[in-house]
Amino acid sequence: MVPERLERAPAYNPCMSTVAPSLPPLTNDTFLRACLRLPTEHTPVWLMRQAGRYLPEYRATRDKAGSFMGLATNPEAACEVTLQPLERYALDAAILFSDILTVPDAMGLGLSFATGEGPRFAHPVRDEAAVAKLAVPDMDKLRYVFDAVSTIRRALSDAQGVGRVPLIGFSGSPWTLACYMVEGGGSDDYRLVKTMMYQRPDLMHRILAVNADSVALYLNTQIEAGAQAVMIFDSWGGVLADGAFQEFSLAYTRRVLAQLKKEHDGYRIPHIVFTKGGGLWLDEIADSGCDVVGLDWTVNLGQARARVGERVALQGNLDPNVLFAQPEQIRAEVIKTLDSFGIPGAHSGHVFNLGHGISQFTPPEHVTTLVDTVHEYSRRQRQG
């Protein structure tokens, strides 16, 4: 059973195809339509880290699971926390609850999360011998992720198989994963990974090639399990110098995108790339082969739209700290962001999001103000 409005989808962007893309049966397909630059009745909204520590119900589920990894590796628990924000807010997409470091963990690096600290690897990759051992991991080691995707899809679907909203799968970018793999965890100065990059670029390229092929396989397997869009988080691309970004980050994001499924079961799968601090390279990222470019809060959204034209849709880009202001101020900043992009044209698209992940200290009721304002104001925009 396909909702009637999906059958009336207008022609797809002629720059890409003369045929309308086939979209999966969904009660709310606004997010997918915006990603593919098709007309929408309102601007869709979802939030990076929308299932997370700012929600008391998430904290309760994590406590029950015993640890972050205990939560992430339990498909039913991962499904529960993925759906929690959708029960509170009228979000237009769900995103898989997982972590970007599952892939290097499956390579045998020994991922752990200590209480009050960030992720750590027991076996960082810092010399030729460690680099030589790297290989694309057996995807069976990540079966818990794919089982979570399938479980979430079932939970989002009704008896006729019509989904509530689309499900987004994701991975870290090859460069971002390499940062954690070499540093052994998070870093303030990226000294170890940049030292390898400049002293032994051959080793860095080897790490990145393995990472790119691993990420591509990982995302394709998520798609096969039920993800209806996929996102590459290049969280640390912005720490690179111009030139180094193109060689060590973007080139390998392109390698991932070139291998990704564009369709599955006859339905189009949008690809999103988000580079924090990547505004300088917006045009090059837009030409990478993705459908959507995510922007952080430092980028002027209207100027970004003018630069990319009809090549890609844009996602973003409210400063997450706006959510600590009062509701009337949040509304004003949301409206300012929507006005900056303007009304989407025939072949442009905007997905509202934060410019990075939501803070764990965000008052949950402030997210209601954000989501409701996006929907209400963007509908008024289109009505003139």
CATH hierarchy class name: Alpha Beta
Uncertain segments of ≥5 residues (pLDDT<50)? 1-18
Gross geometry: globular
Structural class: alpha/beta
- Name given to the CATH architecture: Alpha-Beta Barrel
Largest sheet properties: 7 strands, parallel
If you compute it from the alpha carbons, what radius of gyration comes out, rounded to the nearest whole angstrom?
Answer: 20 Å
Total number of helical segments?
16
In spatial order, strands of the major sheet run 1-4-5-8-9-10-11
Quaternary state reads single chain
- What portion of residues is helical? 40-55%
Number of domains: 1
CATH topology: TIM Barrel
Strand percentage lies at 5-15%
Number of strands: 11
Whole-number mean pLDDT = 93
The rounded distance between the terminal residues' Cα atoms is 33 Å
Helix and strand string, N-terminal first?
A: HHHHHEHEEHHEHHHEHEEEHEHEHEH
